[in-house]
Amino acid sequence: MTSSIPIATTIAPSLATEGATVELIGVVKDYGSHRALNSIDLSIKPGEFIALLGPSGCGKTTALRALSGLETVNGGRIVIDGVDVADVPTNKRDIGMVFQSYSLFPHMTSLENVEFGLRMRKVPADERRARALEALEMVGLGTFAERFAHQLSGGQQQRVALARALVTRPRVLLLDEPLSALDAKVRVSLRDEIRRIQTELGITTVFVTHDQEEALAVADRVAVMKDGVIEQIGTPEELYTTPATPFVADFVGLSNRVSAELSGGKVVVHGKKLDLLGAPQPDGPVTAYVRPEDIAIEGKGIPATVVASSFLGSLRRTQVVLDDGSLLSIQHDVDTRPQPGDAVFLRLKGAPVSAVPRTVNAPVSEVAVP
Ligand code: ADP
Ligand code: MG
């Protein structure tokens, strides 16, 4: 059980690092005729934790591989601590990497796996062993040094991979969906631990994920990617409350897609005028993205019938159907306990919304993420 492993409370001093600045300036990467990165600009501060968030195929792994030097780019510049690294090979870029699938050498123990990078750097055996043990202790696996990969759980293997990435004191840590093969509980505990270790070491970190909850939970700033482009970069709060594009509104957090009208620059949803987020748009029919917590169940307003209601601990989420047959998801306090079949009334609280022009076939009034 991963959760029973004692966690080191102080970080190995020999692993502390000076976080580097990392800049991607107009980075372009083509695979044949496919443009995987379409002029990526990203400026990362020393010690900052950036999440690259986006759906499968949007270019997240390509961006990490470009940063690490595993992939040569077709245009733009990658600058680490002020130095253009175009001609610097991967093993000289001072970067630690952790991948999605377990990548430990199967014929080596945990300790030997962690020692590997130090062996390559010709660090003497005594020092190598001491530093590798220190790194294993940092990830809570000090007593697992002699185990082979097949004797470790998935979460433990990823901890060893993290120790292996950090033992050489890299200036930058790159993590490519390191938690996606793990079960939900381990995912959350290891995610929090990665953040804790990263903060204590002060290492500049880029964490790739397609899981918006994960990105919002760990990162200082999140870069939302789509089709090789960064759509928006901001703090989790900024992305959630002021999404720059409908894609970001839809991808980050839960949203109801609601049929609405844009009129005089305002989004009119069920008769209520709401401010439009993002760039101005021409008037006309739109699909608006309304957050579940921006709708209230009240004594009067828009009539609806409760379909289902789930208790989620600190809040409740209730699905209702409107008279026009559209479904809405609402988030509210746990003291309101709607029952399936109840007739209720809804009020839009008035928060600004994102919207996209509505075409005939566009889906409306459905919950974007269950
Ligand atoms: P992500 O990590 O966000 O899922 P990737 O960076 O792996 O996305 O891939 C971005 C795009 O580039 C995808 O369309 C993918 O099919 C394509 N791609 C990735 N690697 C290669 C490659 N070696 N050769 C050709 N196309 C590739
Ligand atoms: Mg990927």
What secondary-structure arrangement, pairings included, does this model have?
Layout lengths: L21 E10 L2 E11 L4 E5 L6 H9 L6 E6 L2 E2 L10 E4 L11 H11 L4 H14 L15 H13 L5 E5 L7 H18 L2 E6 L2 H7 L2 E6 L2 E6 L1 H6 L4 H6 L4 E8 L2 E4 L2 E4 L8 E7 L4 E4 L3 E10 L4 E7 L4 E6 L10 E6 L5 E4 L8 E2 L3
Parallel strand pairs: 3-8, 3-9, 6-7, 7-8
Antiparallel strand pairs: 1-2, 1-4, 4-5, 9-10, 11-12, 11-14, 11-21, 12-13, 14-20, 15-19, 16-17, 16-19, 17-18
Helix pairs in contact: 2-3, 2-4, 3-4
The chain binds adenosine-5'-diphosphate (ADP) and magnesium ion.
Would you kindly provide a written description of the structure presented here, covering whatever features stand out?
By secondary structure, the protein is α+β, with helices and mostly antiparallel strands. 23% of the residues lie in helices and 33% in strands. It is built from 8 helices and 21 strands. It has helices at 60-68, 110-120, 125-138, 154-166, 184-201, 212-218, 236-241, 246-251; strands spanning 22-31, 34-44, 49-53, 75-80, 83-84, 95-98, 172-176, 204-209, 221-226, 229-234, 256-263, 266-269, 272-275, 284-290, 295-298, 302-311, 316-322, 327-332, 343-348, 354-357, 366-367. The strands form 4 sheets. Strands 6-7-8-3-9-10 form a 6-stranded mixed beta sheet, with helices on both faces. Strands 11, 12, 13, 14, 20 and 21 form a 6-stranded antiparallel beta sheet that branches. The longest helix has 18 residues, at 184-201. The two termini are 30 Å apart. Mean pLDDT is 91; it is low at 1-9 and 362-370. The protein binds adenosine-5'-diphosphate and magnesium ion. Residues 60-61 line the site of magnesium ion (MG).
